Amino acid sequence: MSKLNIDQRSIRDLLTDKKSDFLIPDYQRPYAWGEDECSTLWDDLFAFAFPGDDYERFDSENDEYFLGPIVTFKNASGQLEIIDGQQRLTTIMLLLRAFYDKFANMKDKQSVKMREAIARCVWKTDEFDEPDMERLKIDSENGMWTYLVSVWFLSNRDAEGNLDPLSKRANLEALGNKALLEKRVNSTRN
Question: Which residue from 30, 35, 71, 130 could staple onto 83, CB 3.0 to 4.6 Å apart?
């Protein structure tokens, strides 16, 4: 019989945990969030972090945002199969990646530290807590996640410059959401 554990964690704690090795099983639906869902999540997060458009009113010690449940099952390989929350988790990863890119050219100490913290959420880390940019913290059984991430983040194209036609709908949703989230992130104040 499987053991059920329920715990409340911040998304940062969840993603920076060295044991976080998420797997989207084949039976999960493909990434399907559109602009409406991504915009709703962005607006909710922004309103939470900037109450009344005033970041100074945000109390990081006491304010909590409920992202919703992320239900996982530890499989025989030790990976955390995502049972519920895959769409939200995927979109959060896209958002983190957009912020990672935004901080790329910022050299002030806080921006550099933030970019390093984001990297530890997106990529698996080695024994020295250094991100391995070849190993994402999330993947799928069929390799679709790795493929989509390479399209989203690395802009992989064939010799003629065309995107691989694999799962065109998921690609279009992801690329559209990546562009939307990048636009939203880039419109924030530095």
Answer: 71
* 104 vs 110: CA distance, rounded Å: 12
Half-sphere exposure (Cβ direction) of 74: Cα atoms closer than 13 Å: 8
**Side chain identity at residue 124, one-letter code:** K
140, β-bridge pairs:
24
**For 62-109, how does the pLDDT look when each residue is reduced to its tens digit (9 = 90+)?**
888 888 899 998 899 999 999 999 999 988 988 898 888 889 889 999
Q: What backbone torsions phi and psi does residue 124 show, to the nearest 5 degrees?
A: -65, 155
Instruction: Provide the token pair at 6.
Output: 């329920």
CB 45, CB 64: distance < 8 Å: no
* Token code pair at residue 12: 């940062």
